């Protein structure tokens, strides 16, 4: 049976959007009480909801006086990388501790393919979580914007660009590169190379910018032959270090944009007969357990990873409680921890 050109049964979000003449995301924002909607659009959606008799799941829960009390933490990586990199585990530890204090359930989600991304978007559209935390986002990642379009609060770990529109918690990545190079130059190193992260990630570009600023401040020329791109994995660090040694065998220091890549670089230097720090000084970023357990122990730029996770969760909980027009942003300081590798 058809009524007014529509199949009978429960109306869908898409039908409300079509009746109101707006996008699906606008309907979601209106239903979830987001202030990021014009009065005209809100009125159109309210009329369409009334005409169609649409009752969203989230509204039904609100009438019952409860939320889902669940928050999704999304990491677009494989299980192997998740458990191999201390960074992710420290973020999870911080987020988990903060959410436990607030009696919220943490749903850890790994996204490894477009199919899994689409399935997760459908899960979010069903309003099964109160908010989303996203880690390790790349420049072209559409998921943060899609989450916001559904009217859900979201907080990123890091940024996709300098003009990031979504709430985020980051660390001073430019300062990390500058302090690493200043330290190496202060120890008399003059051929300072770097192993970057993937350059489609803002964090990697910032650390590279800091490296270049550090060279300029030390009166050292920037040389493209001293820059090799990694991917924040140990094997990526190994590949980049081999590339650097082949191009510039006279290098005397390396700034790796993560401790894990520094560990890979350390292995290649040892295979090449280069002593650390006598022949090549080495500095990483994160100040993770990897840095403390390397031989020799690794000088590293500490970023407060667990505190970043806690801060992300606190910002998200605040957004869940009180929606605001202004997207909160936090940039936490970094600190150089000197050990025997430099």
Automatic annotation (TrEMBL):
Any one GO molecular function term: DNA binding
Xref: SMART domains: HTH_LACI
Residue ranges constituting the HTH lacI-type domain according to the UniProt record: 11-65
Keywords: DNA-binding, Transcription, Transcription regulation
Domain of life, per lineage: Bacteria
Pfam families, A to Z: LacI (PF00356), Peripla_BP_3 (PF13377)
Residues forming coiled coils: none
SUPFAM superfamilies xrefs: lambda repressor-like DNA-binding domains (SSF47413), Periplasmic binding protein-like I (SSF53822)
The name this protein goes by in its record: LacI family DNA-binding transcriptional regulator
Lineage: Bacteria, Bacillati, Actinomycetota, Actinomycetes, Kitasatosporales
């Amino acid at each position: 049976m058809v009524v007014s050109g529509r199949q009978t049964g429960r109306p869908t979000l898409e039908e409300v959007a079509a009746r109101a003449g707006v996008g699906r995301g606008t309907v979601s924002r209106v239903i979830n009480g987001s202030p990021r909607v014009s009065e005209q659009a809100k009125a159109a959606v309210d009329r369409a909801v009334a005409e169609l008799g649409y009752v969203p799941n989230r509204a039904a829960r609100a009438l019952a006086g409860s939320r889902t009390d669940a928050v999704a933490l999304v990491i677009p990586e494989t299980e192997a990388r998740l458990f191999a990199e201390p960074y992710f585990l420290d973020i999870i530890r911080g987020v988990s501790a903060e959410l436990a204090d607030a009696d919220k359930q943490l749903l850890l989600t790994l996204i490894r393919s477009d199919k899994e991304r689409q399935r997760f978007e459908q899960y979010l559209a069903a309003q099964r979580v109160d908010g989303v935390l996203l880690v390790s986002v790349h420049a072209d990642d559409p998921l943060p914007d899609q989450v916001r379009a559904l009217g859900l609060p979201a907080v990123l770990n890091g940024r996709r660009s300098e003009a990031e529109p979504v709430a985020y918690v980051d660390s001073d990545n430019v300062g990390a590169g500058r302090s690493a190079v200043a330290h190496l130059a202060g120890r008399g190193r003059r051929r300072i190379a770097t192993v970057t992260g993937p350059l489609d990630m803002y964090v990697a570009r910032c650390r590279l910018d800091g490296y270049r600023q550090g060279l300029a401040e030390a009166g050292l020329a920037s040389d493209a032959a001293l820059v090799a791109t990694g991917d924040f994995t140990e094997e990526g660090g190994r590949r980049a270090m081999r590339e650097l040694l082949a191009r510039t065998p006279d290098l005397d220091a390396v700034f790796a944009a993560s401790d894990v890549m520094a560990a890979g670089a350390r292995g290649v230097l040892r295979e090449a007969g280069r002593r650390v720090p006598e022949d090549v000084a080495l500095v990483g970023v994160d100040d993770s357990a990897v840095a403390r357990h390397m031989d020799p122990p690794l000088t590293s730029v500490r970023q407060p990873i667990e505190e970043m996770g806690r801060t992300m969760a606190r910002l998200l909980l605040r957004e869940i409680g009180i929606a605001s027009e202004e997207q909160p942003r936090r940039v936490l300081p970094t600190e150089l921890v000197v050990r025997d590798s430099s």
